[in-house]
Amino acid sequence: MAKKHTILITLAKENTGRKDISDVLRCKKSICKILSQKKTRPKVLFVKRDDFNAAQKLKKTILNKKPSCIFNLFEGFSDEPSKEAEFVKILETLEIPFTGNSSFTLNSCLDKAKAKRILKAKGIKVADGVIVKNIKKIKMPEIKFPVFVKPRFEDASVGINRDSLVFNQGKLLSLLKTRLNEFPAGLLVESFLPGKEYSVAFLGNGPYEVLGISTIDYSRYKKLPHFLTYASKWDKMAGEFKKILPYSNARIGKKLKIIINKAQKAATALGCRGYFRVDLREKNGYVFVIDVNPNPDINCDSGYIKQACKKGYSYAGIIEKIINLAGA
């Protein structure tokens, strides 16, 4: 009988009611099921907060499990998303293949201000905006309404609600006061991009394979926010979750090819590898990159996996491909 390879699945150990964090448990279960059906022995390691106070012990724990590959589902903690990149820095010292993106990419994409600087330096269009850490230092004449307010160091649309789109100075100052209490590391106040939104799913370490491109046309939704809130992604009871639905583009014409090319340039600039997604929006005929999402949700019902399946991959096939891209 052939010897089974051990694949170690890593994820956070945290008690939280946040849907984006708890959903990783469901993903772990699905991946374990797939790996168990192959000549693979899945093992699971829950990463705890205290582990970062004893990095050498954490390394030893991982090495003792003798994995041939690490399937990394660790996304940091609900109040410390930066731990995601810190954990991958530890993995990078072990010489064990691991899935997904590097610590540089994870850190750069989490810090939205840093990502914008990198993209702008490469000539890639991003929304104009300012970083706000202290409400007293914001220069209101520089801000042209409407504007969009989001946390500087978050992902999964955390901190994005219906009131994130602001149309006047009074509402902005009130929102900044509230949001800075929740996100003291800083906020981005950006020009709002009112057009269609595009999401391009990629696979590979370069050159990248395009799995698919989906579009949200907000002009279809008169009474709903014209952007994706946290609720629209994670709260099944919310109106925007049920009604704001992306549609896949069956035919990739000239315009969509341009959008895909912009997304590829953004991914390259931020060093993306493995699996990732790039989101873009339109304004006045121009397309802007609004987010680069390394290691996106890969539950079987996620947008990323739906795009992969429409291209012909099975769920098991895409998981196997992600592992192979890690170099396992």
What would your notes on this structure say?
Helix content is 35%, strand content 22%. The longest helix is centred in the N-terminal third of the chain and has 18 residues, at 19-36. By secondary structure, the protein is α+β, with helices and mostly antiparallel strands. The mean pLDDT is 94. A 5-stranded antiparallel β-sheet has the order 10-9-8-11-12. A 4-stranded antiparallel β-sheet has the order 4-7-5-6, covered by helices on one side. It has a 3-stranded parallel β-sheet with strand order 2-1-3, covered by helices on one side.
Concise description?
This protein is α+β, with helices and mostly antiparallel strands and 328 residues long. 35% of the residues lie in helices and 22% in strands. It has three domains: 5-98, Rossmann fold; 108-125 and 193-325, D-amino Acid Aminotransferase, Chain A, domain 1; 129-191, ATP-grasp fold, A domain (Dna Ligase, domain 1, 2-Layer Sandwich), CATH 3.30.1490.
Write the layout of secondary structure elements.
Layout: E1 5-12, H1 19-36, E2 40-47, H2 55-64, E3 69-72, H3 83-91, H4 103-110, H5 112-121, E4 129-132, E5 147-151, E6 165-166, H6 169-182, E7 187-191, E8 197-203, E9 209-216, H7 230-234, H8 239-243, E10 247-248, H9 254-269, E11 275-283, E12 286-294, H10 303-311, H11 315-325
Parallel strand pairs: 1-2, 1-3
Antiparallel strand pairs: 4-7, 5-6, 5-7, 8-9, 8-11, 9-10, 11-12
Helix pairs in contact: 3-4
Overview features:
4-stranded antiparallel beta sheet, Rossmann fold, 12 strands, 5-stranded antiparallel beta sheet, 11 helices, alpha+beta, 328 residues
